[in-house]
Amino acid sequence: MKTLFVNGTLMRGLALHPNLDGAEFLGECKTAPKYRLYSINDIHPGMYKVQAGGVAVSGELYRLSDETWQKVKAGEPRHLYCGPVELENGKTVDGILYPESKAEKYLDISKYGDWRKYMASKNKQEVFTMKHIMAEPYEFDFEPKETALVMIDMQRDFLEPGGFGEMLGNDVSRLRTSIKPAKKVLDAARKAKMPVIHTREGHADHLLDLQPNKKIRGRGDKSIGDLGPMGRILVRGEKGHDIIPELYPIEGELVVDKPGKDAFYATDLEHVLRQRGIKYLILGGVTTEVCVHTTVRAANDRGFECLVVADATGSYFPEFQRVGLEMIKAQGGIFGWVANSDAVVKGLEP
Ligand code: C5J
Predict the structure, then answer these.
(1) How far, in Å, are 82, 117, 141, 248, 263 from residue 45 at the CA level?
(2) 88, 93, 111, 96: which is closest to 37 by C-alpha?
(3) Does ligand 1 come within 6 angstroms of the Cβ of 295?
């Protein structure tokens, strides 16, 4: 058994640390005043230890089985490390620490000492300035501070020759036209310091999160979990499951792993968006009629205003691409708005 300090989660570990599934919540606590706290693109907090000028950081304590502890260590990005964290009561436990060199480029929020207090104060102080993107069926009005870019499933298994999409008999070049426009929008969002979230469709290596109907659908020789040219098909950690190099997430961007077509199903996406105060989503990705559509519909039902970047999406079927986009903006924008990448990039300019 291990005890782990987690800085600033919001829902007793369930929120930003899916790796903590199965951990026992022991209570809230503070560190000794020896740390600095950073906001990583306002998506999650990071902290590191200092020799002088540190503050006490609020967080939560968990008891973990050895197996969960291994999952936590394996699940954190490579540049994060687990190390000893000194608590206010003098005890030392393990915690997730951020190297000082990596934290430097992010906003120092140490004076709050608490991720939740920082987020609350931010929401109060900010001056809101609506912006517009020329879209269909009419202008998309959005508040940049409440907007996130969501890139859906830009994975090798869907976009690259040899992947699952091609094994199913599809022509991947139809999806690859979306890469350049998606990169333009990604760059514009990064420049505008807008939160960026990438999703990946896939399953744990034990496949216990794979519904039997999804496993057998298609009646192909091979299906999800079987060995393909890029590793086990749509299995997390395999080459084919990862995001294509052209659109690879940069540090601080959130990657949401989803077992379904809907990015809200069995993920913490909604919680992350709500706690960040996000109300508007700009979406690209593949495929238009499957995961983009399912996610946009789910987001719309949850009250998010969705703009789909037409040329940053793609389908293996030209008619589905056209009709998929039509359906979003039909009936006065029944699911949301549609615009081209140029209009989105223009709308994101300062
Ligand atoms: C599919 C997806 N098409 N990301 N997945 O199976 O659209």
Answers:
(1) 15, 12, 29, 21, 23
(2) 111
(3) no
Residue 291 annotated as catalytic: yes
Report whether residue 348 contacts ligand 1, using a CB cutoff of 6 Å. Answer: no
* Per-residue pLDDT reduced to its tens digit, 282-317: 999 999 999 999 999 999 999 999 999 999 999 999
Protein residue with least CA distance to atom 2, ligand 1: 291
Q: Residue ranges per domain, the chain?
A: 2-125, 131-348
- Alpha carbon of 27 to ligand 1 centroid (Å): 40
Question: Average pLDDT over the chain, rounded to whole?
Answer: 90
Catalytic status, residue 82: no
| Ligand 1 binding pocket includes 153 (Cβ within 6 Å) | yes
Number of H helices, E strands in the chain: 12, 18
CATH for 2-125 is 3.10.490.10
| Catalytic position from the list 145, 258, 261, 329 | 258
| Contact criterion met (CB below 8 Å) for 175 and 287 | yes
Atom of ligand 1 nearest to the CA of 289: 7
Question: Rounded to whole angstroms, how far apart are CA atoms 287 and 310?
Answer: 11
Please work out whether the CB of residue 290 comes within 6 Å of at least one atom of ligand 1.
Answer: yes
Q: Please tell me what DSSP assigns to residue 289.
A: I
pLDDT tens digit sequence for 41-80: 877 788 899 988 899 999 888 888 888 787 777 766 666 7
Superfamily of structural domain 131-348: Isochorismatase-like (3.40.50.850)
Q: What would the pLDDT profile of 243-256 be if each residue is shown by its tens digit?
A: 999 999 998 899 99
Catalytic site includes residue 258: yes
Two tokens, residue 174 = 């139809």
Ligand 1 atom showing the smallest separation from residue 291 Cα:
7
